[in-house]
């Protein structure tokens, strides 16, 4: 049974501006494992897309569980690729749920949608 659905959209320029204005911006959004992937990217625009996608994914997850970011922090939520490169989302304290995620980018935006499914009872 579906427990929640969340979606978020973020302008890439806002993420780029945050990265340029605050050296700790990336650290506030990404977990250590996500930062490792981020730091491997060579292209600055791809880094902006990656960070924007993770930001949108974490916001979408928080909306799907109904808490919003604040009660649930960016570091409670992690988005890593599976063996095929598709994003997989997990969150500390929400291990009993199955979560499904899709992230997409356009020239100006990153969008993420999360569906959370409650386990069988």
From TrEMBL:
Record's subcellular location: Cytoplasm
Keyword terms, alphabetized: Cytoplasm, Fatty acid biosynthesis, Fatty acid metabolism, Lipid biosynthesis, Lipid metabolism, Magnesium, Metal-binding, Transferase
Main location: cytoplasm
Enzyme's top EC category: transferase
Keyword Repeat belongs to the record: no
SUPFAM superfamilies per the UniProt record, alphabetical: 4'-phosphopantetheinyl transferase (SSF56214)
Listed GO MF terms: holo-[acyl-carrier-protein] synthase activity; magnesium ion binding
Cofactor(s), by name: Mg(2+)
EC nos: 2.7.8.7
Domain of life: Bacteria
Gene Ontology CC, one term: cytoplasm
Catalytic activity annotation: apo-[ACP] + CoA = holo-[ACP] + adenosine 3',5'-bisphosphate + H(+)
InterPro entries: 4-PPantetheinyl_Trfase_dom, 4-PPantetheinyl_Trfase_dom_sf, ACPS, Ppantetheine-prot_Trfase_dom
Keyword Nucleotide-binding: no
Domain 4'-phosphopantetheinyl transferase residues, every copy: 4-113
GO BP of this protein: fatty acid biosynthetic process
Residues bound to Mg(2+): 8, 59
HAMAP family assigned: AcpS
Purpose: Transfers the 4'-phosphopantetheine moiety from coenzyme A to a Ser of acyl-carrier-protein.
Family as reported in the entry's similarity comment: Belongs to the P-Pant transferase superfamily. AcpS family.
Protein name: Holo-[acyl-carrier-protein] synthase
Phylogenetic classification of the source organism: Bacteria, Bacillati, Bacillota, Bacilli, Bacillales
Gene name of this polypeptide: acpS
